[in-house]
Amino acid sequence: LEKFFSVIAKGQTYLNFIYLFLAFPLGLIYFIFLVTGISVGVATLIIWIGLFILAMVIAGWWLCAGFERVMAINLLHFDIAPMSTPRSEKAQTNLQKLGAFLTNPVTWKSLLYLFVKFPLGILSFVVLVTLTSITLVMLFAPLLYRYIQPEIIGWTGVIWRIDTMGEAVAASVIGFILIFVSLHIFNGLAWVSGKFAQIMLGNPHPAAVVSPAPVPPVENVNSVPSVE
């Protein structure tokens, strides 16, 4: 019970809410940018300007992925590894940097992440708006039932119409409980989003391989020393 009700007093809960609220508009921006940029870039490859457009799109999606990584670290407090690789950190020439960038798994995982961000943002926004609106209407039913008479509708039609004070008070109690249920659901969605960002936007460096220590030669115990 303490864990259930203490969620409302935790600052992380509201940071998660902000992150989920921003997921839909950001996902929409990423989707429009990527679809438009890639389509125009591929269509204009024949006149070579498409290479420049695609290069700008690639740079843009890398910056967007970096922004998403920073936002997940600061709002969701997930530990996400750097996006670079040992090869990209050691690259000196432009050709080496390009090769390291194109062979970096995060380069392509981040593209997939930005595309998935759009449907994930829609899901987060729908859950956020639906649960928030239902909770508020139920919570304030004693003040609203005289004017709007909230209804719960199922497959077979209206299951419950709140049109009396007794029903409104019962709905308000349910709405109070829904506050905490909704916050836990929001935290769960934020955890899924943070875990997804951790997998797609982080590139943990492989652990250094420790070479085994040299084994000293073993004397042959069966050998018999010569006697002069």
Report the order of strands and helices: HHHHHHHEEH
Unreliable runs, pLDDT <50, ≥5 residues?
207-213
Structural class based on helices, strands and sheet pairing:
mainly alpha
User: Helicity, in percent?
Assistant: 55-70%
Percentage of β-strand residues: under 5%
Rg calc: 29 Å
**Count of alpha and pi helical runs:** 8
DSSP E strands, number: 2
Distance between the termini: 89 Å
For the largest sheet, list the strands in their spatial order.
1-2
Shape: elongated
Look at the structure and give the mean pLDDT: 84
Main sheet characteristics = 2 strands, antiparallel
Can you describe this structure in just a few lines?
This protein has 228 residues and is mainly alpha-helical. 68% of the residues lie in helices and 4% in strands. The protein has 8 helices and 2 strands, in the order H-H-H-H-H-H-H-E-E-H.
Describe the protein's architecture and organization.
With 228 residues, the protein is mainly alpha-helical. Helix content is 68%, strand content 4%. A two-stranded antiparallel ribbon has the order 1-2. Strand 1 (151-154) and strand 2 form a beta hairpin. The chain is elongated, with a radius of gyration of 29 Å.
